[in-house]
Every structure is written in C-alpha cells, then in structure tokens.
Design goal:
The chain is an alpha/beta fold. Helices cover 37% and strands 21% of the residues. It has 12 helices and 18 strands.
C-alpha cells in the first residue's frame, strides 16, 4: 500500500539535482530528509528553490500567473516528483509549458494532487526564503524571523508565539506536541500571559472612559473609524482580565487552561489591544523547576530556548496534513545535546499531523546521529563538476547509532585527532556560545587554541565551528 501523505521524491532545476528518498516510505508518520554539507554547497538555496517552485505552480493552478506570489525569479526549467494521496505525480516545466503526470498518466496541473501547504522555517534574520505575512488559509507559510520591515525583534517574535498558542490550542494534539519541545528546553507545560493596561482608566466599567484612554494612545493622523471598530473588542478584553489572578502588578492568564470556546475571543482581544498600543506591559512567561518553580519571561530565554519553543509553537499551529516543511539550519543556537534530540522530538511532535514531509538543511553532524528508520533519509553534498560545483547524493548505509564523529567523517570526509577530547571541547564551546553555560573567556579561548591545532583546510565542519567561536569571543570583548 502506498503512503497517503505528501512525500517529495526528487527535485531538479537549472542548478541542482536533489534525490530525497530511495524506496517506499512507511504509509504513516512524518518523513524527514536531512541535507548535510559545508557552507557554500547550496543547501539553503535548493530549499528556497523548492519553495519558490511550489508557490509558482500553486499560482498557475489558481490562474494567478502574474500575481505577486510568482514575481521571484525561478529557474528556466524544473522537474519535480512527489507522492500524495497514494498517487505518484510528476511536474515538468520548461519554456514550452508545464507537463504533468499522475501515476504515469497525463494530467492537468489544475486537477493534479498537490500538497495542502508548504512552510519555510528559518533561524537567521537574513534568510533565503520568500517573505509572506502570516495568513490563516495561505498555501505558503513563512515562519522565519523577518517582518515586513525586515527588522527582527524579540517583542515581535514573542507576539507571533502568543498568537500561535491561541490558534494552536484549538487543534487536536497541539498541547501534547508542544509539551515535547517545552520538556526538551527544560520547562513545564504551564504558560502564562502576564498583562497590564497602559493606564488604570482602561479598566473602567465606563465604555466612554476606556474609549478616551485608548484613543489617547493612538498616533497622530490615525483614522478614528478604524480605531472605533476595535475599541469594543479592547473594552471586553480589559473587563475580562479583571477576573484573572493579580500577580506582581499584572494579570495572569493561564493559556494552557483556556477552554476551546474561549480561545478565539482571547486571541482577538490580545491582538486588538496590542495593535491599539494599549498594553502597559505584556509578556509570555514560562515555568522551570519541580518544587520551587521559577518564572522565566520569553525575553529572558536564551536564543536556543526561544528557537526551540517559539519556532515550533508556530509550526505546530500553522501546518496542515499532507504538507511540505523546509527548515534551514535548525542547529543555530542549539547545544549538541539538543541537536541530537532535535529530529526525534520533531517527528514525535508532528505525529498527530498526518502526511508531512520535512526537509532540513544542516552542517551539524550532531543533527543526524539519530535518523532511525525508513521514513528518514540523509542526503550529502559532494564536490562535483556541475555548474555550482556541488551535487547531492543519498547517504549509502544506515545512519542510526553512528557517533557524531562517524557522521563527521562519513559526511565531510574528515577524521579528527583524539576524537573523545575534541568532542568534549566542541561540546563545552557550543554550550557557552549557545548561552546554556556561563561564559568563561579564558576557557573558551583555550578551547579555540586547542581546536585550531588539530584543524586543517580539509576539515570544513570544524572550520564552521571555529569561525563561530571566534566571532562569539570577538563580540563579547
């Protein structure tokens, strides 16, 4: 029996030829394909090309060829093979047109089985993916850090996470799946939205008084009608928070305990008050510990913790069944322990969302040591005499159970000296630069000096790590 969910099998364009699976995946579960290789091999670019091609094809299916979604440059020709709904589909595009097959029979693109959704996840302020504002039913979801202004702020990311929590908690399995990421980051499943109004007048029972206080907060030139329509929503929100526990001058909303029927009203109220600039303070707070719980605001989390929790709460809230997810360099800001747990946690957290295929680009050998079944594949970048100088091939052999040193050797062709000691130095350094351990300048500099002694020009993976350590030390000075 063929797998019913979406599975991308092959992608070819002017510059890249990317095989993704050998053989038939399981009929259930999430498929994960990991592309590993050094910087400059085209990992991120090929993920971006895949996204752009599917967005372009989706615009053709909807007869929007000249729409904004298709304006990014795409290759002159492309070939895609995938499965969805148990049907093997191919799409060939060149200057003469688009030609499709479904189970080897000619088919019309408009009626061809197609993924429900595609999503791009990135962890750098400047990524290669097309930007798109979040929209509930959009075919393409951009879940990176960029905003329409191309600025990246912790406050903006926190607001997106809060909105995703309100949306996600209405989906079956979301709460349990999110708990997996919270547990990995060392937090309990208790989440609180701590809010206070900009002024006490906003808590008045008198609507006109609240309206006056909110209008006072609006920028000069704001159209009154556009504000008036939202003031009633804000008024109801402020009336509702008065019934919440009052802790340290703020009202505490326990997000995980909200009933499904209340989620939309709280979401609308939060978003409206935020846009009307009527919060005096607002923060998402996590809890850590067993007996003596410690409150940790989102803004105080390490970059790795914000990534683990923030990115994946958004992904779990947005992604639908039978979809494609591409994730670029998720190892950024994650220490080695989290890198090794990343793929198992990702697969288990997506288990209630059927038929998802995840493509991950990485240059971390820690990321791939637990790829464990035939629903996973490892694709390695290899030097080739191609237009880009690089090609991709599926890793020949089992990956599960291999040590990170072994993957480093097999994937990059590099053997390190004194592996056990090098590995410890790498772990200690990455713990410090991911802010999971206290920064010790002398210790980190000593580690850098030792690693440089065993490094060489034929060790691209080590070069990447040493470059990050050096930049971290320089930034701290």
């Amino acid at each position: 029996m063929k797998r019913k969910g979406f599975t991308l099998l092959e992608f070819v364009d002017d510059d890249f030829e990317l095989p993704l699976l050998n053989g038939e995946p399981d009929i259930v579960g999430t498929v994960v394909s990991v592309i590993i290789g050094p910087n400059g091999c085209g990992k991120s670019r090929v993920l971006s090309r895949i996204i752009d091609e599917f967005v372009y094809l989706a615009s053709l299916r909807n007869k929007r060829k000249n729409s904004r979604s298709s304006r990014r440059s795409i290759s002159s020709k492309c070939f895609i093979k995938y499965q969805v709904g148990g049907v093997e589909c191919t799409i060939s595009r060149d200057e003469s047109g688009v030609f499709c097959t479904a189970d080897q029979e000619s088919a019309d693109l408009k009626y061809l089985p197609f993924p429900e959704q595609i999503a791009a996840v990135a962890h750098l302020p400047a990524d290669k993916f097309r930007f798109s504002k979040e929209s509930g039913n959009a075919f393409y979801k951009y879940l990176g850090l960029r905003q329409s202004t191309n600025l990246t702020t912790t406050g903006a990311l926190e607001a997106k996470v809060v909105q995703s929590l309100f949306r996600g908690l209405s989906k079956p399995g979301f709460k349990e799946n999110l708990k997996r990421w919270l547990t990995l980051a060392g937090y309990t499943s208790d989440l609180y939205l701590m809010v206070a109004p900009y002024s006490e007048k906003m808590l008045s029972k008198n609507f006109e008084e609240v309206e006056e206080a909110i209008l006072y907060r609006q920028p000069t030139g704001t159209i009154p009608d556009s504000v008036d329509k939202r003031v009633r929503v804000a008024f109801d929100f402020f009336q509702n928070i008065k019934a919440l526990p009052y802790v340290h001058d703020r009202y505490a909303l326990s997000i995980m305990e909200l009933s499904t029927s209340d989620l939309q009203s709280w979401h609308d109220g939060y978003d409206t008050v935020r846009r009307l600039r009527s919060f005096g303070s607002v923060s998402l707070v996590f809890m850590r510990g067993k007996e003596d719980l410690q409150a940790c605001p989102f803004s105080d989390l390490s970059s790795g913790e914000q990534q683990i929790i923030g990115t994946h709460s958004r992904l779990l809230a947005e992604i639908e069944e039978n979809s494609l997810v591409v994730i670029d360099e998720p190892e950024l800001s994650l220490h080695p322990d989290w890198q090794m747990e990343y793929i198992p946690t990702l697969k288990s957290s997506l288990q209630s969302i059927n038929g998802v295929h995840v493509l991950i680009a990485t240059h971390s050998h820690f990321m791939v040591s637990d790829i464990d079944d035939k629903n996973s594949s490892l694709i390695m970048a290899k030097k080739q005499t191609t237009r880009t100088g690089w090609g991709f091939e599926i890793f020949d052999g089992d990956v599960y159970g291999r040590s990170p040193e072994n993957i480093l050797y097999r994937a990059f062709g590099v053997a390190t000296s004194g592996n056990i000691y090098v590995e410890k130095d790498l772990r200690d350094a990455l713990h410090m630069i991911s802010m999971e351990d206290d920064y010790d300048k002398n210790k980190l500099q000593s580690i850098l000096d030792r690693l440089q002694q065993v490094n060489g020009p034929d060790n691209p993976a080590m070069n990447i790590i040493l470059e990050r350590i050096g930049k971290f030390i320089e930034h701290k000075q």
